[in-house]
Amino acid sequence: MKMFASRTFGLIISVYLAVVxxxxxxxxxxxxxxxxxxxxxxxxxxxxxxxxxxxxxAPHQNIWGGLADKEAADIIDLLHQHSTGLNLTTEDRDGxxxxxxxxxxxxAPNKSDVLPFINKNTTKPPPRYARATLMFGATPNSFLQDYxxxxxxxxxxxxxxxxxxxxxxxxxxxxxxxxADRSEVLQFAKDVGLxxxxxxxxxxDGVQRCRQINQIKSGTxx
Length: 222
Ligand SMILES: *[C@@H]1O[C@H](CO)[C@@H](O)[C@H](O)[C@H]1NC(C)=O
Ligand SMILES: *[C@@H]1O[C@H](CO)[C@@H](O)[C@H](O)[C@H]1NC(C)=O
Ligand SMILES: *[C@@H]1O[C@H](CO)[C@@H](O)[C@H](O)[C@H]1NC(C)=O
Ligand SMILES: *[C@@H]1O[C@H](CO)[C@@H](O)[C@H](O)[C@H]1NC(C)=O
Fold this sequence. Notes:
This protein folds into three domains: 1-45, no CATH class; 69-179, Nuclear Transport Factor 2, Chain: A, CATH 3.10.450; 183-218, no CATH class. The chain has helices at 2-40, 69-80, 111-118, 182-195, 197-219, and strands at residues 99-107, 128-136, 143-152, 159-162, 174-176. The chain is 43% helix and 16% strand. The N and C termini lie far apart (79 Å). The structure holds 2-acetamido-2-deoxy-beta-D-glucopyranose (NAG) (4 copies).
């Protein structure tokens, strides 16, 4: 009897909780549904997605924008001029025993130049500079070195100098390259491989045949 009473009590509590929870959920659901309806209604302050991109106006000119094609082309021309003394070979003719441009990008402006512009203390944007990574292969001791080129656009005042202030290493942006003719070594290995292709094929076929024979032997009941 005691057990029956406690079971009945348990049942009543469960039903009560179920009613409370479901009525609360209905209330919450009803509220969110009316919000959804309000969103889609004519009087809603939220409009549906527009088919065209909205136009925005930036408060500042983008001073971090990458080099434009014209800027990059002009810099490449300048670097290849004899007067720079870099002795660069153009990309279509260069090999591992030449000096060449590996990488060219905008050098991020100094914070001290950016802040006055962003804070509207000056209307003059920071001067633009480029950084180039050059590979010096026309020497027995090959090395990479970063250069700074600027100010841009190129005028008679534009300078090409080793980029050093960014670096703390002993070489100040100059790094030795021990294995500069990797592509020649790969080509050599390929040439040697091709010259013994017939022998290699015979050997591989031989090994393959031995394997097949072994598999048959180990897997076959005699
Ligand atoms: C310039 O580079 C070429 C290889 O591209 C090399 O043969 C020549 O000796 C270099 N000239 C100087 C002055 O280093
Ligand atoms: C940026 O700051 C470095 C370190 O102070 C300085 O050497 C360099 O000339 C500055 N660059 C420009 C464009 O002012
Ligand atoms: C703005 O520039 C002036 C003159 O160069 C300077 O005295 C002042 O401290 C600068 N103000 C700010 C907020 O950088
Ligand atoms: C740049 O230098 C060249 C040759 O030295 C000269 O003919 C030209 O007038 C100079 N340009 C400017 C803008 O100073």
